[in-house]
Specification:
Elements (H helix, E strand, L loop, with lengths): L4 H4 L1 E2 L5 H4 L5 H19 L4 E4 L2 H8 L5 H4 L6 E5 L5 E4 L15 E4 L5 H4 L3 H18 L5 E4 L4 H9 L3 E4 L1 H8 L6 H22 L6 H14 L4 E2 L4 E3 L20 E5 L2 E2 L5 E2 L2 E5 L7 H19 L7 H7 L5 H4 L5 E6 L3 E7 L4 H4 L10 E9 L6 E10 L5 E3 L7 H4 L1
Parallel strand pairs: 1-18, 2-6, 4-5, 6-7
Antiparallel strand pairs: 2-3, 3-4, 8-11, 9-10, 10-13, 11-12, 14-15, 14-16, 16-17, 17-18
Helix pairs in contact: 3-9, 7-8, 10-11
Length: 415
């Protein structure tokens, strides 16, 4: 079963191949436009350059992919991205050839891996040499006293400070660059979603009494790797009593007949783009219980209402005020966000519930170019099963909202 999107004034997902896969000619332009957004955000903040270590940010700014998970914990590859001037990719030793074709990279150098793991007693000397190289590049780009950095060692920042630089956090300009999609970037997002949806179909088909959560979850992994995805970022698939509270990781528990099975995809998929939607399934061939249908109905109502409220020009606080009101018995275990941005990962903005927005939230405006996920988790504070649902949407440049994710709801649960 699918929602009546026309009644909500939301455009349906597309499966048109020309809109779900960028052409060979479009890809270089997308990469250059993404780099342009990063440069513009740096210039807006009078930042000479950013040194990017986060593999998602390196990929966004340069298009290069290499050892994404490994690089998320090891500062062994990074990119120097100036507001003006040549982009230098510092690649893991021996991997320089991997990015030689990219139009966004002007020079590739071997990286200086600035961690104790690589250097032991030489770490301090290597970090000083790293800082000397970064400073020399900054001088070639016009100098300035402001450099942005992220995800590196603390000593790397200290070394830049000792050389007279004001060191800023690169996350802000990168988050703001990524939040608004460039022309045809959405085709990469759709491509990732279409592949992951096929993987979820395989996962759903594997749900059966006596099969472990891990065995079912592995079907999604197998498919996404076969379709050139990167990895699954979380382990959020659970069953029966483990569906409530949420955030219980996939395990070796055997799924039982008649139980709910809840999934949040969280896949870093094709082209590095996040495919992020959630569904709750019913194990076996029987009918859902009244309690299961009631939970599902509440989650469905929350998703539907909050999707309908997603409009360009609406502030985050207005969105929170208009949001579906969670019944009291389910508020304690509500999902922490009403909606969040999504691109290569979960990203800016995070829009929290009206109860939380003064303490944990911030304000802003829903704007064209944003892709967002609308979230729901319904689980009673006294326990029992829970239902997780989520949809991914795109606020288009023409002001219309388009549903990106395309996976049916279980008719046995929705009633």
């Amino acid at each position: 079963m699918r929602m009546d999107l026309a009644a909500m004034d939301i455009l349906p997902p597309t499966h048109d191949p020309a809109e779900c896969e960028p052409s060979a000619d479009e890809i270089p332009r997308i990469l250059l436009d993404r780099l342009g957004r990063v440069r513009a955000e740096l210039a807006k903040r009078d930042i000479t350059a950013a040194v990017l270590f986060d593999p998602a940010h390196v990929r966004y700014a340069t298009g290069s992919r290499n050892m994404q998970v490994y690089s998320s914990r090891n500062p062994a590859r990074y990119a120097f991205v100036p507001a003006e001037g040549p982009v230098v990719l510092f690649e893991f030793s021996g991997c320089e050839h991997l990015a030689s074709h990219l139009p966004t990279v002007d020079e590739i150098r071997p990286a200086k891996a600035i961690s104790y793991y690589f250097n032991e007693k030489n770490t301090e000397a290597v970090t000083r040499a790293w800082a000397d190289e970064i400073v020399e590049l900054a001088r070639q780009c016009g100098g300035g006293e402001r450099l942005a950095i992220e995800s590196a060692t603390s000593e790397a920042a200290f070394e830049l400070q000792r050389r007279g630089y004001r060191v800023l956090d690169a996350q802000e300009p990168l988050e703001m660059a990524r939040a608004y999609k460039v022309p045809n970037e959405i085709k990469m997002v759709r491509s990732s979603l279409r592949a992951v949806e096929d993987g979820v179909r395989k996962l759903e088909a594997a749900i059966a009494p006596g099969v472990s959560e891990n065995a079912v979850w592995a079907k999604l992994h197998e498919h996404i790797i076969a379709t050139d995805a990167d990895f699954v970022e979380t382990r959020l698939m659970n069953s029966g009593p483990r569906t409530n509270p949420w955030f219980q990781e996939c395990s070796d528990r055997l799924i039982r007949d008649g139980e709910l099975v809840a999934l949040d995809t969280d896949v870093v998929g094709r082209y590095g783009y996040y495919a992020d939607f959630s569904r709750t399934f019913l194990c076996g061939d029987g009918e859902a219980s009244p309690a299961q249908r009631d939970l599902y109905k509440l989650a469905y109502e929350q998703i539907r209402t909050n999707m309908e409220n997603l409009k360009p020009g609406v502030s985050f606080k207005e969105y929170a005020e208009r949001a579906w009101r969670i019944p009291p018995a389910y508020r304690a275990r509500r999902y922490f966000a009403l909606a969040h941005g999504v691109g290569m990962n979960g990203e800016y903005p995070y829009i929290v519930h009206r109860e939380d927005i003064d303490d944990k939230g911030y304000d802003g405006i829903i704007a064209p170019g944003m892709t967002l996920c609308v979230e729901s988790f319904i689980g009673h504070e006294d326990g029992g099963e829970g239902v997780k649902l989520e949809e991914q949407l795109y606020v288009r440049d023409d002001g219309r909202v388009e549903l990106l994710s395309d996976y049916p709801f279980d008719p046995r649960l929705i009633g």
